[in-house]
Structures are given as structure tokens and as C-alpha cells.
Specification:
single chain, 3 helices
């Protein structure tokens, strides 16, 4: 899944959605699921924080250039 780079909020929201999906499929980090769900729901309220993250790290994705089609979670 290629993450959108048109806005920090769209990028971070898609990143969290993908991580949540992966965590659910792997049955890991279950205590984080509600927090991630709330972050997705309230992404518009987190715009300033997401802007700071993108300013600091850019639109970096751990799967850029990776063979994600080989991973069943993506």
C-alpha cells in the first residue's frame, strides 16, 4: 500500500490504519488497538502533531521500495 503524500494528516492516518490492520492480523499489540482507532477517528485534531512529525522525518515509510506484495499483511 502506497501512502499518500498530499498532506501530513492523510499520510499519518493511512500509516496508522495500515499498522492497525497489520497488528490485528498478527494478533499483536492488542492494548494499542483502541488508541490507534481513536487516533484515526480524531486525525483532524492531530494535524499539528502530524505536521511536526512530517517536518522532522518527512514522508518516510518503512516499506518504501520494499517487496510488500510478498507480505500477506499489506
Amino acid at each position: 500500500m502506497v501512502l499518500p503524500t498530499n498532506s501530513p494528516t492523510a499520510f499519518c492516518k493511512a500509516f496508522i490504519e495500515r499498522e492497525l490492520k497489520s497488528n490485528r492480523q498478527g494478533h499483536i499489540w492488542m492494548t494499542y488497538w483502541p488508541v490507534m482507532e481513536r487516533m484515526i477517528e480524531r486525525a483532524d485534531e492531530l494535524t499539528l502533531a502530524f505536521n511536526e512529525l512530517i517536518k522532522k522525518f518527512g514522508y518516510s515509510d518503512k516499506f518504501d521500495g520494499a517487496l510488500t506484495h510478498l507480505n500477506p499483511y499489506y
